């Protein structure tokens, strides 16, 4: 971490980060902004996510942020643990996610239950 203080988060955003930790671990140190409650959070609060994850026991490398604009569904942002995934593997995971969710992401129905 950079030593900078965590951004002040509202209670719901912080709870969404806590809730996302299990998915991050289950996915081998990877999470994209399609995760429930994480729209815009990954892009804007990567350092805060890392701080919360460390409170929950995360001991991995500094989280890295990736992002890509997909013509089929728009921008997707993701975080990943460099110790478990390299940037190419994280991007490939996102490419597969975008491809399999393109229709739902494009028409917005993917977010109906978020």
- Overall geometry: globular
Determine the N-to-C terminus distance.
Answer: 29 Å
Main beta sheet strand tally, sense and closure: 3 strands, antiparallel
If you average the pLDDT, what whole number results? 86
- What Rg do the Cα atoms give? 14 Å
Fraction of helical residues: 40-55%
Number of strands: 3
How much of the sequence is in beta strands? 15-25%
Assign the structural class, choosing from mainly alpha, mainly beta, alpha/beta, alpha+beta, or little secondary structure.
alpha+beta
Write a concise keyword list for the protein shown above.
single chain, 114 residues, alpha+beta, 3-stranded antiparallel β-sheet, 4 helices, 45% helix, globular, disordered C terminus
Question: Could you write a compact summary of the structure shown?
Answer:
The chain is an alpha+beta fold and 114 residues long. Helices cover 45% and strands 17% of the residues. The protein has a three-stranded antiparallel beta sheet, sandwiched between helices.
């Amino acid at each position: 971490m950079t030593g900078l203080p965590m951004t002040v988060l509202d209670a719901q955003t912080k709870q969404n980060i806590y809730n996302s930790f299990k998915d991050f671990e289950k996915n081998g140190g990877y999470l994209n902004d399609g995760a429930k409650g994480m729209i815009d959070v990954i892009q804007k609060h990567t350092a805060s996510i890392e701080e919360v994850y460390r409170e929950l026991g995360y001991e991995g490398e500094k989280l890295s942020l990736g992002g890509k604009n997909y013509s089929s569904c728009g921008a997707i942002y993701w975080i990943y643990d460099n110790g478990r995934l390299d940037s190419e593997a994280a991007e490939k995971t996102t490419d597969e996610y975008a491809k399999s969710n393109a229709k739902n992401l494009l028409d917005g129905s993917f977010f109906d239950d978020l």
